[in-house]
């Protein structure tokens, strides 16, 4: 019982001010009423009602009330016990509802509310159930909010030297309560005592013993002020060998004895917080809070069984933003006949309207000689000709994108830096103006006015500097195109959602200072987050199933705050991964994810560009198999993946929106046709982040998800015509239409014959069923069950 009781605990508080302090235990601060400002080290955050954040071990923090009637709940997590469970002292979290958005925050909030509703069950049998909820909260924290040791450290200033400082700090923080020596640390770091002693003195300005005693003293002072422990106990618990040694170090810093300091500070604190509520008053407020807070039952799968009802006479326009753009690759890719064939399939069956291409300017087509510049556009012409002749619109990325095949975010199978061929403003200005004139002369004004031109913020263009070359290049391209027609649309800059978030404001502020503003703002969305802790940046995979929507909402809020809203907002690249070798991309699970993201995007942005169209994009020496984990909608051989069918089913949707849920979207044409598209997308669990993406095996996929439960969806459409309807049901799941599972029946063998590839092609088609529905009371009732990762389209037609 003692172990369970001490792993996690909580208390309510109404203090208006908490002076700077820190502690080894982790703390979740949850604002139940009022508001506060918290400073953690050098960072400040404003928390309102419903906000919470986690304070990591040994982080100095202070709190002050900003809105009256402050009521907080403080959840303390025993660091030592958690470290024992996790098998490491390297424990760091990023959990802050004011700075991030993630579906896991709502999951954690519900758990914390369940804890609070057990306020009076801290003793006896109720404590058993309360502790089970504590462990549930810890599971969510460690699964979705922990920064692991293998999460990549980023930024140029994170050098091996900084990493060593980080190791020293963590070692001392984890062991300061013990009798540790310089020799112990030197052995751990494989350094000599003499070298490490000089290194610590240089980097910290203190000797090793002085640094350790400094840490011990900070913790001891915290206990002196916030506990009733005796001075002797505090000294020994914080690593001082004797009370005398503690007194000596303390006097050197504070010029008084520990007992004298404790008395004086407590007296001052009493005077400052006379208005702090008594324990009895706090309990009364807690009772009031709990009385007004609906007791949250344990989550059950029944939420998927809720009936969803819509009215056939109440509709809005359904704008199909999800199939606006498909990414294909460098413009040269359009010269390949197989790629052309696949592009036409995506146009005809998925409804894509814009084809995004890049690397328009390449060295072998450019001549710079004696102060003159010339570019041969013939290769570009052949690619664009193909699009225009087939009623497709070019979406042209003007920058110099690298050419690589990615294993993970930070490792590649092959990479080739694409050099910027223009070395000064004049050469770029000349070629861009020639390019603009060439396009108009070849394709006509009306045609080019319907295209989009984008400039990505390549790091080499230094958008972080308000005088960086990005703004010169954007201005040159903007004026070159706008001098032809003001209706040509030019924008950028490919903001990386979740990854650029520490730079959003600076980047936008730099752009606001320029004379030229974009017609549209573009974003990239891959499920990776950049997290800052202790001046270090960590890149980690996100487990947020709503990543695209949540991170888009955060970025849109920044644009509003900066008053920098463009006419259109585009996500020109999106996927859950940037890896070209992740077998999940070939699976039914990815099809469900694609459909879920498309549904969530409705009404959120103007255009979306899926990354990317074809596995031909990254064909390389390791691609002998029919599938190799690339994120194309079509395989190298043109076989349709579940992600292809996700777009295909979405394209069934009619022009009028009836409504949408977490799992489905309903539409009608207003003339007796109703289409329902639905999915059973599952969320990754923590195991997904434990493996390198390239090392994930098809056989292990089911282990990477929170559950594999089926769902039962029910719909009612009111005010429909009475009579007979025919419903066609199209679906793809692990048993029907999944290319990966059909290949699995062939033992995932490589180097298949042409006939065997054709067999897989025929097997990778949706299952189709039909049924008759009779309506007598003006209500069309439909229900359907979906396996884990299944996608469906229900196409319903009135029979005249």
TrEMBL record:
It comes from the Bacteria. PROSITE patterns: HTH_ARAC_FAMILY_1 (PS00041), HTH_ARAC_FAMILY_2 (PS01124). One of its GO terms (molecular function) is DNA-binding transcription factor activity. Keywords: DNA-binding, Glycosidase, Hydrolase, Transcription, Transcription regulation. The keyword Transcription regulation applies. One of its GO terms (biological process) is carbohydrate metabolic process. Belongs to the glycosyl hydrolase 39 family. This is Helix-turn-helix domain-containing protein. It comes from Agathobacter rectalis.
